[in-house]
């Protein structure tokens, strides 16, 4: 089923990278119908300010570097910036933090992203099993994924019914349907994203792993806040 790799994958492999930049990963999954936060790359403070205005405040800034995987650990992420002044200062601060923490890191720029308000945090993952091929994962996301390991798996391809079963299998399912007065999340959007993740695994054989985490799930719709794709 795999065909010609998408441009994002070809570009990364041509540059000797095994991990897509976040904006590349989001561009790829968005084409499969999975909603993502808007993201643009700024090379300087002026561009960051212009892009923030274009996207709309508040925004998030993140370092873009092939040498930095865990951006928060090096001071490479700033959240909920509400003005042009905060964006300019934030751009400078991120560059300073990264140069101090990882002096030799190659810096491609700083991503300016739409800020996603809090929702129910879930994860959709993809891994490639030597025997079964692409496996789709669903679970409670954010920091809780490693703490509770409340996840379910299916071999791709998956259909709407498989996706429904995956949602129901996790212990945290009541959080999705409205727990103690909280609003239920958009279950059809989550199921569509799971089916799409299976298609990505089948159609792009170069992908070894994919983590969409966290995905903010709302009453109406979902948004991928962070995306990581690792190539074989």
Automatic annotation (TrEMBL):
It comes from the Archaea. Transmembrane segments: none annotated. Residues 26-62 form the ATP-grasp domain. InterPro entries: Acyl-CoA_Synth/Transferase, ATP-grasp, ATP_grasp_subdomain_1. Keywords: ATP-binding, Ligase, Nucleotide-binding. The keyword Nucleotide-binding applies. Pfam families: ATP-grasp_5. The keyword Ligase applies. One of its GO terms (molecular function) is ATP binding. Gene3D superfamilies: ATP-grasp fold, A domain, ATP-grasp fold, B domain. PANTHER family: 3-HYDROXYPROPIONATE--COA LIGASE [ADP-FORMING], ACETATE--COA LIGASE [ADP-FORMING]. This is Acetyl-CoA synthetase. It comes from Candidatus Methanodesulfokora washburnensis.
């Amino acid at each position: 089923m795999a065909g010609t790799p998408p441009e994002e994958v070809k570009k990364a492999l041509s540059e000797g990278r095994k991990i897509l930049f976040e904006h590349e990963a989001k561009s790829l999954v968005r084409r499969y119908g999975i909603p993502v936060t808007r993201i643009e790359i700024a090379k300087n403070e002026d561009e960051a300010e212009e892009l923030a205005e274009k996207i709309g405040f508040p925004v998030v800034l993140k370092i873009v570097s092939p040498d930095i995987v865990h951006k928060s650990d090096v001071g490479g992420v700033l959240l909920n910036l509400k003005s042009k002044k905060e964006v300019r200062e934030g751009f400078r601060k991120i560059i300073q933090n990264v140069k101090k923490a990882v002096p030799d890191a190659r810096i491609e720029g700083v991503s300016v992203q739409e800020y996603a308000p809090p929702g129910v945090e879930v994860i959709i993952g993809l891994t490639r099993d030597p025997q079964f091929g692409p496996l789709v994962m669903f679970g409670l996301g954010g920091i809780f994924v490693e703490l509770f390991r409340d996840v379910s798996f299916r071999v791709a391809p998956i259909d709407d019914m498989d996706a429904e079963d995956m949602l129901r299998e996790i212990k945290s399912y009541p959080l999705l349907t409205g727990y103690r007065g909280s609003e239920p999340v958009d279950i059809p959007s989550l199921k569509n994203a799971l089916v799409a993740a299976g298609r990505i695994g089948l159609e792009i054989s170069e992908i070894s792993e994919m983590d969409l985490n966290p995905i903010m799930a709302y009453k109406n719709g979902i948004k991928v806040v962070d995306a990581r794709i690792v190539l074989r």
